[in-house]
Design brief:
Length: about 325
């Protein structure tokens, strides 16, 4: 039994390859769909490469994450994938660590079949940790150049070296990409590649492209700063409200005190008026009494004078 259970008359289960370009052109849409379904998405057990550990996994994930996030942000259609089975016409399947294809749909795929997609790979990145150096540094450059892949880069984590190759127009062999100020240029991606603190970084102009965890950290920091700012603003507002309430309470107290003083002033005026009226009344009464007394005194004097005259003897 074949290691890959899906079969098609057009795919050899013992040596599964995509049909040649000539053969593909003769197939119907139904036959092409059967071929695509029959092509395996994994290596035969005897050809599978052993896992290379966390360093390899992290470097691959960070590269695909940074590129995918960046191109989504700027709205550029570049398909990015990692360890995706790739089928060129008549070639054995291979699965690079990271691939990029420009100006295509970015929907998920089980494999990249050149005849079906209508385009080959534009960019390949292999990450070398403990794998076969000859495969990544000798065999792959020859194979990818023969297949017409415009750019090929190798991140050699073991030796902390970044290498790059590029096809010149009309040529079928790679030329090395020379570093400029410590970075390698990718014309396909429109980015610069460099090694920083043992990690691969992509640069757009002078700026490094952040990875998701860095964007999340920045967002979290921005949220923290915004939260602190809002808390400070809320505290300042609360203090301002307390001051305003205290000021309003003081103004209310002063208005109440002013009203009390006005009431007291009115009471004193009323009391003063009452006392003045009483005094005037007393003065009037005393004047009446004095006038009465004076009148009685005049009458008494007149009576005395009359009596005195009556007592005098006649002359």
């Amino acid at each position: 039994m074949s290691w890959w259970p899906r079969t098609s008359p057009l795919v050899d289960p013992e040596d599964p390859r995509a049909p040649s370009a000539e053969k593909w052109a003769t197939l119907s849409e139904e036959e092409r769909a059967l071929v695509l379904d029959a092509l395996p998405s994994e290596f035969p057990p005897d050809e599978a490469s052993p896992p290379e550990g966390d360093e390899h996994r992290r470097a691959k994930e960070m590269a695909t994450d940074a590129l995918t996030t960046f191109f989504e942000r700027i709205g550029r259609r570049i398909y990015i994938s990692a360890e995706l089975p790739v089928y060129y016409p008549g070639e054995r399947m291979f699965a690079p660590d990271v691939i990029a294809v420009t100006e295509v749909s970015t929907h998920p795929r089980k494999h990249w079949t050149v005849s079906h997609e209508g385009k080959g790979l534009d960019f390949i990145l292999e990450i070398l940790v403990s794998g076969r150096r000859r495969k990544d540094l000798v065999e792959n450059p020859a194979r990818y150049a023969r297949l017409g892949v415009p750019e090929y880069f190798v991140l050699d984590l073991g030796r902390q070296v970044l290498r790059g190759w590029r096809l010149q127009p009309g040529e079928s062999t790679y030329h090395s990409v020379l570093p400029i100020r410590g970075t390698l240029s990718s014309r396909v991606l429109g980015l610069e590649l460099s090694l920083e603190n043992g990690r691969l970084r992509f640069h757009f102009g002078p700026a490094s492209i952040p990875q998701s965890h860095e964007l999340i950290a920045r967002l979290e920091q921005a949220v923290v700063e915004q939260t602190q700012k809002r808390q400070e603003e809320a505290l300042a507002l609360e203090q301002a409200l307390e001051q305003a309430n205290a000021q309003l309470a003081e103004e209310a107290r002063l208005r109440a005190e002013e009203a009390r003083l006005r009431a007291e002033e009115a009471r004193l005026r009323a009391e003063e008026a009452r006392l003045r009226a009483e005094a005037e009344e007393r003065v009037a009464q005393e004047r009446v009494q004095r006038e009465g007394a004076e009148e009685r005194l005049v009458q008494a004097l007149q009576e005395l004078d009359r009596l005195r005259k009556e007592r005098e003897p006649p002359r």
